[in-house]
Predict the structure.
Amino acid sequence: MGRKAQSKYDDALKVSVIMPSFNVVEYIDECIQSVINQTLKEIEIICIDAGSTDGTWEKLCSYADNKENMVSVRLIRSDVKSYGYQVNTGIRAAKGKYIAIVETDDYVSLDMYETLYAIADQTKADVVKADYNSFYTQTDGSRVFQQISMWKKDQSQYNKLIDPRKIIYFYANDYGIWRGIYSREFLVKNDIWLNESKGAAFQDIGFVQQILACAQKVYYSDKSLYRYRTDREMSSMNSLHGLQYSCQEFKRLLENEAVFNKLVYLPGLYRHMVQSFYGELTKLLRITDYDVHSEYIEPYSNWFMEEVGRALKLKLVVPDDLDVFYQYFQVMADDIEKYATDLKQRDSVLRENTEWILSKTQGKKTVVFGAGLRGKRAVRLLMEHGREIGAICDNNRELWGTQKYGFTVISPTEKVEHFGECVYLIANKCHTDEIEEQLCSIGIQKENILRLL
């Protein structure tokens, strides 16, 4: 059953929360309860289910039938298995002033929509977005969170209105349609819709590109309000079809005249294209045993290389010489088979390093030295293989006492005082030699010091 588009807003509704679902029974309770229990009560929930067979639909019905809910829960049953179709159906059915989208294997902070709507109401922004925390669940059931920040270096860009239309940083770094709210009037006026391709993967690419091309008032809050799951096997992040889905999104942007005419800043579009191509190609090479002629790779990599190559030749884009993703692209375009061979060799070295670390940490408590992304990888590796982590330490004083990946970060001196008999795993890219010297100077035996490559 479907719903026709609403001709008018409901003045009482501030946010319409769209929740597309398909076979997420394991996660749906946590997700929908986090929305039902929002501190902002002037919201509606629109659940669009694409024919779930695992009990998801029945759970949604129980929430819609619950008269004790403080907010309206509307259900739409769809025969079309398309994330883009589901979200577009929700937008057409929405009555609220602003639109939000929640992926139903995630959940949100209870004050997310009160926080974002207050900003939107005050600033009249087209879009208001916040930071988010990615998370995964460990074998013992505990969760490890990491805040993902829109602005890692220039904090001054938070908490103010920005016109993003010709700023390449946004095209490269603004992703995740679920971490914000969008003026419904803005979306309808600019005819912004998701691609209604099959499946539930990558349709957000085209949506975000259109948003950035049309929005004149975007606000980024420095609060972290959304909780994004990274360990679901069936998620689009883990799909064999990533390159194909990415390709079809960019083809639509370039070949659909109505959509293309909105894209006022081609350097931004191509920058995102190059980044997406690099990421998906690298991931798929590892899945397909580094076969560049795989059916999952070759047709789509050919299209990307031809299209970006054409844009570069015609100088539709003139990349910054320091842009590493264009450097990666050039390497792949020059000889994709060599790129695959080199990647295979590097991965072989990393696997050997991983096996060595696991053998050295068996039955021993390990201290991870480094609280950055490499530290995160070290923690996850050790936890997934049942190794005991004593602590995380870092030389950055600002991190001491903060929580990282489920542990409190301590100073190196404190680490040695309390964990002197441990194995020490250095998880730092640039200062490994200096850190090893530092550990040795404070009494740690060299045979107890490991390096994560």
